[in-house]
Amino acid sequence: MTDWARTYENLPYFLDALLTGAVMTAIVTAGGFIVSVLLGLVLAGCKTSRSRLLRTFAYIYVEIFRAVPVLTQLFVIYFGLGSIGIKLDPIPAAIIGFGLNGGAYLTEVFRAGIAAIDRGQSEAAIAIGMTRGMALRTIILPQTVRVVLPPIANFAIGLLKDTSLASAVAAPELSFQAHMLADRTFLTTQIYLLVALFYLAMSVPLSWLSRRLERRASRGVRA
Amino acid sequence: MISPRMLALIGEWMPQLIEAAGYTLKMTVLAYMLGAVIGLALALGGMARQRWIVICCRGYIEFVRGTPTLTQLFLVYFGLTSFGIALPSFEAAVVTLGLHYAAYMAEIYRSGISSVHGGQQEAAQAIGMTRGEAMRYIILPQSLRVILPPMANSAISLLKDTSVASLISAPEIMLRANDLASQYYMPMQLYLITGAMYFVLAYPLSLGVRYLEWLTSRGHRSTIAGPAAG
Fold it and tell me: The whole model's pTM is what?
């Protein structure tokens, strides 16, 4: 029996295992995304703040987390923290790892978004008696959405693919399930092609959505 | 944490990690050159007049950009063996990363080429140049201003992505760190040192890219600054 026939015969079993993994991939992606956005907002706030200390902190954080591979960061969090008594399960470790890493990327996105808004907006807000915080929250941030939406959508697609690295810390997501199946059946080509299809099935709709958002967000605004 | 014992250990580790960093750099350079060449071919293919070439190039780019590097790495390293092609891990990593980055670089070339005003192409053809000549002498040189900064950014991303090659046991920094971490059981110290080594390699590069961005945007109205590619 050829490998392809064997794959076809076991397909329901493979699909079932991979689907379980895909759900986990979605959870890690969503968790990492939420942490990234929150952290990115806070750090972007630090970067635009008047306090020199906060600005320096945000700068150092962003530079370090952007210059080091996310795999290394995952290993520090999972194996490193584990060895000094802070044992995290693979899934929370992955969510924290991708969140801390993604936060650094999104900081730059949010900062660029805030910088893209005309200074007059925040001056006007302060002139009518708003505090800096109120101006940022109610005047500046809503306007930055148009600028930051496309890069955030791209980030989400990148994150979805990066979560495959969580398999290296044994998080039971799509790639990890694939390694298990491949180890057991030796049908590596077939299984990894199936996995590629699973990732495509998740990332293609996302990138379609991001193009749509981009078009919608730029309506009525000169490029 | 910095006790004399720790310093002695770091002294033991560093020569090994630095040797591994040589492999990381070699992998980065080889994969980058592969990606830059194939990427250009893909970008030009995507603009060809023959429909099937366009479809093949676009399909390849979408497939590569829609799937993780790790999956592609396993397809090349483990998957190709069932077709009788067994690449050693280092070569498999170079090929995979090269093919992966080619898809991203193709998009960079494409946006650079399309940033050159259409009149340039028409003028070149009006004075008797062929499409190929116009591309080579007129369009590509002018697109460099748009192409160079993101291409330099790709080098930084690629440098970091070589860490993934450790998962197929290709010799580079991350693999050596894993070996040492299990040998000494000091993962925290080792992965922090590893992170510091990547930082030392990547941070000067990223300062260079920022300088390049500043240099290429001088004398031009600022275009919308895209965020750094992942």
Answer: 0.87
Pairs of CB atoms within 8 A across A/B: 143
Q: Residue A221: which pLDDT band, with cuts at 50, 70 and 90?
A: low
Contact B102, B42 (CB under 8 A): yes
- Residues 94..113 of A with a Cβ closer than 8 Å to B: which? 105, 108-109, 112
* Pick from B207, B191, B164: nearest CA to B28: B164
| Contact criterion met (CB < 8 Å) for A192 and B71 | yes
Is the confidence at residue A1, as pLDDT, over 80? Answer: no
Interatomic CA distance for residues B181 and B167, integer angstroms: 15
Tell me the C-alpha distance between A179 and A159, whole Å.
Answer: 20
Largest CA distance in chain A: 78
If pLDDT is split at 50, 70 and 90, which confidence band does A114 have?
A: confident
Which chain B residues are within 8 Å of A200, Cβ to Cβ? 63, 66-67
Distant-in-sequence, close-in-space partners of A158: CB < 8 Å, separation ≥ 6: B230
pLDDT of residue B221: 52
Contact A163, A101 (CB under 8 A): no
First to last CA, chain A: 58
Nearest to A91 by CA among A13, A201, A176: A176
